[in-house]
């Protein structure tokens, strides 16, 4: 009898432990979804591209600064997605009830506090590792994020604001030399503009993800991808990289076309949420390949450093949503 009572207590204790672990997994999973864990790895390639552009302009980006700014960009992205869901909670309650806030796994007030805290820490990190110019650049990214999440979402200005956050993220990388590269040729300054336009086009499609039947939105994103590849060709013609750098850049460009082309084609053929959603996700992750293509034109190591971020991003995307 005593042995039976002890066994019952052990089973109850084990059940409590399993319940606690299950609750912890649910909480951690909720926050991982909130910050779009796979997407976080798409932010450092922007910074790496910016550092590569600074090197092309004659600067000497310090590895410690590049790494610190990459961390800052991750925090900016996490803060942005967290605030996105916090602001969108009422809409998500109707359209996406499985998301962390409407499902009750994360409190809306907590999300607001966490989102703004992440942005402030990101700016502080950028300032600490690369000085005033980096702090200003990170601060501008944070302002663009808040403007998009809180006020401009869904409007033409909103699409541009989201693109600007990515373009400024590339500019943030240029501060790894200790200052913004102000005397760079126009061809170098155009690269952040290309990233801005591409992400603005993808955001236009993402805003209509749940509508269905909106082939025009898919066409806009497709045009953005095509324009980005054409801009890469223009960039290569002006930079005139060595044969190896050119080959690696073109390989990344080919991978980008394959990566985003298939889901965009499927979404255009049948623009319903089940095809548009994956197309949005592919385009977001595809930015890593686009960054890598531009960076590889400066140096193979720059391109590989940017492109390797796709590995954890894709791996995590199998467990967490990208959009």
From TrEMBL:
The keyword Lipoprotein does not apply. It is found in: Cell membrane. Keywords: Membrane, Transmembrane, Transmembrane helix. Pfam families: UbiA (PF01040). One of its GO terms (molecular function) is transferase activity, transferring alkyl or aryl (other than methyl) groups. It is a multi-pass membrane protein. The keyword Nucleotide-binding does not apply. The chain crosses the membrane at residues 111-130, 159-182, 188-206, 218-236, 242-260, 272-296. One of its GO terms (cellular component) is plasma membrane. Its main location: membrane. It comes from the Archaea. This is UbiA family prenyltransferase. It comes from Natrinema salsiterrestre.
